[in-house]
Every structure is written in structure tokens, then in C-alpha cells.
Specification:
Lipovitellin-phosvitin complex, beta-sheet shell regions, Nuclear Transport Factor 2, Chain: A, 2 domains, 14-stranded antiparallel β-sheet, 20 strands, globular
Length: 497
């Protein structure tokens, strides 16, 4: 809760080792033919530190990094990219309540995005967003997400002095405000020395949520309501310190491994807008550790950020509620005209449950869009073989009564169970039909094989009436859409709808 809101050949028996040695020898800060005893001691101390530093990275990345016992004379320095660099971003934010039952899962959000860095005018660098997907995560299962299209945000314009990056013509939503977790946190200030253990202060400037509104409205595709004033940007400086931990070899190129840390604590009072109702206060303690791999060419290869925030809310009567917020984010270079690239978590294979939920969302959307071929393609062939064209007619009859979303909101699903290849999902389906305010409960069964899900059956009932006759049945054995009584209007509902 923040306001507003050396190079030595480590494996001498490997083919090509001398080539690597000769390639980088001129970059080293020490003579490769140094005294053997001093060299051995240096290898032991720095090599062990380098290996320890790498242990904090994901296994898939560690496999591609070779710790080095010697380092270049010059420290790493940022450069303007000579060609487009494509990055992939992945993050997950989770909230837990200490003391809650072990079965309680308060879920969280997962965000994935593509970001491209190119050379801009006047020696600047420019960041542009690709598709951004935001999804709910419950019990470790990602739900289908909403997608913000490429180039929908204002481009980020950056300048650097080799040591630090500075945004100009900002703030934008992508760089430092809280909306998209602040990409500024992945490009640290670089130390003045190439020696492991070198440190430098790095004040990380983060803006409050919404501070990018003026720029986004001007350069992006955000439409700001007429007459509403833009918030005046306000920022907080988080006092991080960057340490160069070690050097590694990545695909024959040296790279610096850096770690940055900071702690921050504060208190916030929230008033009440209702007369006679007391507000509440909150205290928070935040710890953040980030790790970065910066290539000798001046490119960011990889960054990861881990933040933990402990929040204590004090409500009227001095009752307390504690909350723990954890955020893990990764940002990796996945495409360039030359040099090393890596993989990121978004390359992971979706689970059967996630494949099933995605299939339901696509099925529902295809029916709403009228793309009949995709609707049929999502159903098990036995359903179509048994009922033919009546399948589409029955589904349209149901959605005409209850609305396009009545087949279930997979994006917010709670109940998902898997037994072998079978996945069962229970969804909330909003209905435009009932006058008494009730909606639908929709049950799906799917079969997931070879990364593809097919719908075996669908049943929809009025909420809280699990024993009542189904209003929609779709399976190889049954196909039916029933029109029930609309119920009695209740206060505040439009009886004419």
C-alpha cells in the first residue's frame, strides 16, 4: 500500500574453450597468465559468490549462465539499442490473510505483456507495449484474461547517461506509475566499478496510480471524461542500493549480475465519506529484492523483482486485520537482431484446468459473435453427430432469453476439478431474464487431451436451485432449452426488462 493508492575458462576440456578465451581476453581486468596461486584463490572466492548469486534465478535460466572468476575492466553501461529488442513481461500478485484457514485462497492477478525497445529521436530509446493480458488466479489456476491491445498505451521516451535511465515527457502508465507495476524497476542504476561487491544508491521513483492519465490521454488511447481534472503527478522515492554480485558468461558474452534491495514502511489514514462513520488506518512494511542481468553490450537481458508487503488495518474499535501481499515479476529479452536472448515464464505450458477454462470462454465468445464453425469446433463431435443443426438453435434460444454471457463467466470461476482427462467447471452466468434478481449456475464437463479441450456437456440452472430441472442441457444424450417463469419483481429491478 503506497500513496494513492574473469574471465577464465571454467571447463577446459570442452571443445571451443580456447575460442571463448581468446574472444574475451582483451576485455579482462587482469592478465590471464597471472600467478597461479593468486588465480586459484580468486577463482575460489569469486566463483563461489557467482554460483551463489545464480542460485536465485529460475532453473531454466541458471542452465544458460556460466559463473566467471574474472571480470572486464570496464563496468556495464547502458546503450541505445541498435535494433528492436522484444521483451516479455510476466508477473503474479497474491494476497493472503495470516491466520485464515489453510483452505482459504484469496487469489491474485497475473499479468503478461510484450514490450519492444527501439532507438528513438535525439538519441532516446522508446518502449512500446504489445498485448497486455490481465488474469485472475485462484488455487494456482489462471483464468482467461482480458487483453489490452498493442500500442494502446503512450510510448515511453527514455534517455540515459550510461548509468541510469530517465523518462522524459512523462509520466506514462507503463514506466513508473502503479498501473502496470513500473518497468523502471527492471533497469537499475549501474555501479561505477566492474569489481564484484561494487555498490551504488538507486532511488527508484514510483508514481501514484493514475499519474499517467494526462500523458495517456494525449499520446495513448485512453479517453479521459470531459470536465474531469487530471491528477497532479506525485511520486515516492524508494531508497534502493544496487550491488554488482558477479559476472557470468551468456552465449559467449559477459554479463553483470546485480541485486538491488530496499525496505519501506509507512502509515496511512482513510477517512469516511459518510457522516458518523469512522474511517480506518493502515500500517505497512515493504521489502523488495530485485535481480538483474546486464550484458556487456549495454542491454538488459533479464530482471526479476520480489516484493513482500505486510499490512495491518485498524478499524473502529481497534480491531485489526492483517494481510500479506506478495508480488513476483520477471522481464526477459526474447528477441534481438544479435546477441543472447532467454525464455520467460510465459513459455510455460498451460494446465488442463486452464485449457478447459480458456475453451469455455472461447466457446461463449464465438456464440456471441456468430462464428458458428468455432462454436461447433469446441463441442465434442458426439454432440453434433447426435443432434445436428439443433445444437446451434438450442444455444441461441438460451442466450436470447438470458443474454450472451449467461453461458458462464470463465474469467471469474471458482469451482474447477480435474480427474484424469476430465475437467468439471461450475460458473456463474449472469441472466437478463429473471425479474427476481437471480442468475444462472452453469456446469461444464470437458475432456482435455494433447493440449485441446472439448465440451462434453453443459447444464444451466437457476442459482441456488441445484435440485431443480435444468434450464439448458447440452450433451450427446440430451439437448434442451426450457423457458421458466420469470419470477416476481423485487424492489429496484425494472419489471419491464
Amino acid at each position: 500500500m503506497i500513496r494513492r493508492s574473469t574471465w577464465l575458462c571454467l571447463f577446459p576440456l570442452l571443445t571451443g574453450c580456447n575460442r571463448v578465451r581468446n574472444t574475451v581476453e582483451s576485455m579482462l581486468g587482469q592478465d590471464v597468465e597471472a600467478d597461479e596461486h593468486a588465480e586459484d584463490a580468486l577463482q575460489t572466492d569469486v566463483g563461489r559468490a557467482g554460483q551463489d548469486a545464480l542460485s536465485e534465478f529460475p532453473d531454466r535460466l541458471q542452465e544458460r549462465l556460466q559463473p566467471l572468476s574474472r571480470w572486464p575492466t570496464d563496468p556495464p553501461r547502458w546503450t541505445t539499442p541498435p535494433c528492436p529488442l522484444r521483451y516479455r513481461y510476466w508477473s503474479e500478485a497474491m494476497i493472503t490473510m495470516p491466520g485464515a484457514p489453510p483452505t482459504a485462497d484469496f487469489g491474485g492477478l497475473r499479468l503478461t505483456a510484450e514490450v519492444t525497445m527501439t532507438a528513438g529521436a535525439d538519441g532516446r530509446s522508446v518502449l512500446r507495449n504489445g498485448d497486455i493480458e490481465i488474469s485472475h488466479v485462484t488455487n494456482g489456476i489462471k483464468r482467461p484474461g482480458s487483453v489490452q491491445p498493442a500500442d494502446s498505451l503512450a510510448e515511453v521516451r527514455l534517455e540515459h547517461d550510461g548509468v541510469s535511465w530517465t523518462e522524459v515527457d512523462g509520466p506514462t502508465a507503463l514506466w513508473s506509475p502503479a498501473e502496470y507495476t513500473g518497468l523502471t524497476q527492471f533497469w537499475p542504476k549501474l555501479p561505477a566499478s566492474s569489481h564484484p561487491g561494487s555498490r551504488t544508491p538507486w532511488p527508484i521513483e514510483m508514481h501514484a496510480r493514475g499519474d499517467g492519465a494526462r500523458v495517456e490521454s494525449k499520446r495513448g488511447k485512453t479517453v479521459w471524461p470531459d470536465g474531469m481534472a487530471f491528477p497532479e503527478p506525485s511520486s515516492t522515492l524508494f531508497p534502493a542500493e544496487v550491488e554488482l554480485e558477479s559476472w557470468v558468461l551468456v552465449q559467449d558474452e559477459p554479463a553483470a549480475v546485480l541485486v538491488a534491495r530496499f525496505e519501506h514502511a509507512g502509515k496511512e489514514d482513510f477517512g469516511s465519506s459518510r457522516p458518523g462513520i469512522e474511517g480506518f488506518g493502515a500500517t505497512f512494511e515493504m521489502t523488495q529484492v530485485s535481480r538483474h542481468i546486464v550484458l556487456s553490450s549495454g542491454r538488459l537481458l533479464y530482471g526479476q523483482v520480489d516484493r513482500t508487503t505486510h499490512v495491518t488495518m485498524v478499524t473502529p474499535g481497534d480491531s485489526q486485520m492483517k494481510q500479506e501481499q506478495r508480488w513476483h515479476a520477471e522481464f526477459g529479452l526474447v528477441e534481438a537482431c544479435d546477441g543472447p536472448v532467454i525464455d520467460t515464464p510465459s513459455e510455460e505450458v498451460a494446465s488442463p484446468e486452464e485449457i478447459a477454462l480458456d475453451a469455455i470462454a472461447r466457446f461463449r465468445n464465438a456464440l456471441a459473435a456468430g462464428t458458428d464453425d468455432e462454436v461447433i469446433d469446441r463441442l465434442d463431435p458426439t454432440i453434433v453427430e447426435a443432434h445436428g443443426d439443433a445444437v446451434l438453435r438450442t444455444l441461441r434460444k438460451h442466450t436470447k432469453l438470458h443474454g450472451a454471457s449467461s453461458l458462464g463467466v470463465a474469467e471469474l470461476s471458482d469451482a474447477v476439478e480435474r480427474d484424469g482427462d476430465r475437467v468439471k467447471v461450475e460458473l456463474w452466468g449472469p441472466s437478463d431474464y429473471f425479474l427476481d434478481g437471480y442468475n444462472l449456475s452453469v456446469a461444464y464437463e470437458l475432456e482435455v487431451r494433447d493440449g485441446r479441450a472439448l465440451i462434453i456437456s453443459i447444464e444451466a440452472r437457476k442459482q441456488y436451485q441445484s435440485d431443480a430441472e435444468a434450464l439448458l442441457e447440452v450433451s450427446a444424450k440430451r439437448l434442451e432449452s426450457r423457458q421458466p417463469p420469470r419470477g416476481e419483481p423485487i424492489g429496484g429491478l425494472d419489471s419491464a426488462r
